[in-house]
């Protein structure tokens, strides 16, 4: 019995030692590739496997490859004859971006407080390889069945001529697009841009590369180039979720679809912007490009002095209506003229801007007579005829029927020598009186008088007024929102004082306005000057929970400041931007 007991104890001890040795085996962390050589149209699977559970897994950067899927994680754990087996794997599916030899660098993992690294491995990417349809993966089918294209209306426009970019997504009938989101929106540097919202996605049956496809318009934008030469239109990138058919079938024989994601890009597009010709360029040309009509009209041609009329200078048609200055009226000095009121009715279509812009002047004659509004000219470049055109308004005669006659000129404009006679009244010169007829004041004592008691009661009477005034001050102090608005308005005036002084001078005004906006952000958000990029500013404002309308207003002002360097801006536009800046700074100060 004792011998059997000893044998049993030895057996248990041996199994325990064996189990301990198995459990204390060396930690391994390896990288495995599905293949070492692959075509540029193939996919690479990368597995990072470890035999102990770890934390803080850090993958390599996968230079030369695009991550299609991953990391997906799988864990395997089992006990066989008292021995534990464990395996954990992180899996990535990659697509090569170029041909050549690439190195999949080290990945790291922390296991039991120690950091382990995988060994780097080299992969060679060759030219595309031909494979039977049956060997195509889900990603292969997605690559062949989904395309994002930027369709450009003109690749060689003139400066300030409209260019339309339409982004279309083409999908094969064999796949289903379930969702998409923009990864990178183009910034359209060196262009004045206007988005045309897509309110509804209409799917059309069409062809692409000679094959049947379905297409949908995702984005439309109209661009006006502001610089000559070769300009680049940045790509639009989308992350698209789609379902792709596989070779597997379900119980009823229907094809099984697999869900995948694909990143598609419209690619960089370049256009060559031609400068406007110098031959035949009018001296008064202000940058208008398109097809326009021009007119000068008045609300009336006959009126009395001190009455008013409206003189309207209007331009309508198709072209860069928001990017040039309207000609100014030259009126006689005898007519009092107020600053013009700018009116705009412009819509943007796929062919560009169309509508009308105008300046309306209020004119008040001072004297009786006839006053001509001289003819003025408007010049523009027509890209269809590739020639400059000049349109002139006719002369308009304003007849002031009743009112005082000008002392400088009569109705015909000749100098008048008539002088008004001065009539003497006979009492222009009189002597000062030497007997003023003064009366003496009776001597009265102040104490005990009516004035004494009034002054004594005055402080008592002022006590209710002081109480009312104190309550009023408390009410003002407790009005937090009202005080915020007052402080915000004072702050806006402080930062915009330099811009206000520069109104009328385009470059000085917009430089001062841009500095005011930047100085405000620097003071409120502690943003350094080196960080003044549009993306960072927008990010800062979002972090501060500034509402969308105020954010867009601030970014729009910065865009106008940038655009003003190479685009004409009218006094009315400058005044509108000044008012908008005051409002935006006030709103920002209340929200931040």
Automatic annotation (TrEMBL):
InterPro entries: BatD (IPR025738). Keywords: Membrane, Signal, Transmembrane, Transmembrane helix. Pfam families: BatD. The chain crosses the membrane at residues 452-470. It comes from the Bacteria. Residues 1-23 form the signal peptide. PANTHER family: BATD, PROTEIN BATD-RELATED. This is Oxygen tolerance protein BatD.
């Amino acid at each position: 019995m004792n011998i059997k007991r000893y044998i049993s104890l030895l057996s248990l001890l041996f199994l325990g030692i064996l189990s301990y040795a198995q459990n204390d085996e060396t930690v391994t962390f390896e990288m495995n590739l599905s293949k070492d050589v692959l075509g540029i149209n193939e996919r690479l699977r990368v597995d990072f496997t470890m035999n102990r559970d770890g934390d803080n897994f850090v993958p390599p950067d996968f230079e030369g490859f695009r991550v299609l899927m991953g990391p997906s994680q799988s864990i395997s754990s089992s006990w066989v004859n008292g021995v534990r087996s464990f395996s954990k794997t992180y899996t990535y599916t990659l697509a090569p971006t170029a041909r050549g030899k690439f190195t999949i660098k080290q990945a790291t993992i922390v296991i039991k407080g120690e950091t382990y690294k995988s060994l780097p491995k080299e992969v060679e990417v060759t030219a595309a390889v031909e494979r039977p349809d049956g060997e195509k993966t889900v990603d292969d089918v997605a690559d062949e069945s989904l395309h994002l294209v930027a369709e450009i209306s003109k690749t060689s426009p003139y400066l300030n001529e409209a260019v339309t970019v339409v982004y279309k997504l083409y999908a094969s009938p064999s796949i289903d697009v379930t969702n998409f989101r923009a990864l990178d929106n183009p910034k359209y540097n060196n262009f004045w841009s206007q988005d045309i919202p897509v309110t509804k996605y209409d799917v059309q049956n069409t062809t692409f590369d000679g094959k049947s496809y379905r297409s949908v318009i995702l984005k439309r934008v109209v661009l006006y180039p502001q610089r000559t030469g070769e300009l680049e239109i940045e790509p639009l990138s989308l992350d698209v979720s789609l379902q792709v058919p596989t070779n597997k079938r379900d119980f009823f024989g229907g094809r099984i679809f697999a869900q995948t994601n694909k990143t598609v890009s419209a690619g960089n597009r370049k256009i060559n912007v031609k400068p406007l010709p110098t031959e035949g360029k009018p001296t008064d040309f202000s940058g208008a490009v398109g097809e326009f009509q021009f007119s000068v009209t008045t609300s009336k041609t006959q009126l009395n002095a001190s009455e008013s009329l409206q003189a309207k200078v209007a331009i309508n048609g198709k072209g860069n209506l928001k990017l040039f200055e309207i000609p100014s009226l030259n009126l006689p000095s005898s007519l009092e003229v107020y600053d013009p009121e700018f009116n705009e009715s412009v819509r943007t279509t796929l062919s560009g801007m169309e509508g009308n812009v105008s300046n309306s002047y209020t004119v008040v004659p001072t004297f009786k007579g006839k006053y001509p509004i001289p003819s003025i000219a408007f010049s523009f470049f027509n890209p269809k005829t590739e020639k400059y055109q000049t349109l002139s308004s006719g002369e308009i005669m304003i007849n002031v029927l009743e009112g005082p006659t000008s002392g400088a000129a009569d109705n015909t404009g000749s100098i008048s020598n008539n002088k008004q006679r001065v009539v003497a009244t006979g009492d222009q010169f009189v002597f000062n009186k030497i007997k003023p007829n003064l009366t003496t004041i009776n001597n009265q004592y102040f104490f005990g008088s009516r004035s004494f008691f009034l002054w004594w009661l005055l402080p008592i009477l002022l006590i209710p007024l002081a109480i009312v005034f104190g309550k009023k001050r408390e009410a003002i102090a407790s009005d937090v929102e009202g005080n915020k608005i007052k402080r915000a308005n004072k702050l806006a005036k402080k930062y915009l004082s330099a811009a206000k002084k520069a109104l009328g001078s385009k470059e000085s005004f917009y430089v001062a306005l841009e500095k005011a906006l930047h100085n405000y952000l620097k003071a409120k958000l502690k943003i350094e000057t080196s960080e003044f990029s549009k993306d960072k500013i927008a990010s800062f404002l979002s972090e501060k929970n500034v509402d969308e309308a105020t954010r867009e207003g601030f970014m729009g002002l910065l865009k106008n400041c940038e655009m003003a360097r190479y685009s004409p801006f009218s006094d009315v536009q400058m005044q509108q931007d000044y008012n908008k800046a005051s409002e935006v700074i006030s709103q920002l100060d209340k929200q931040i």
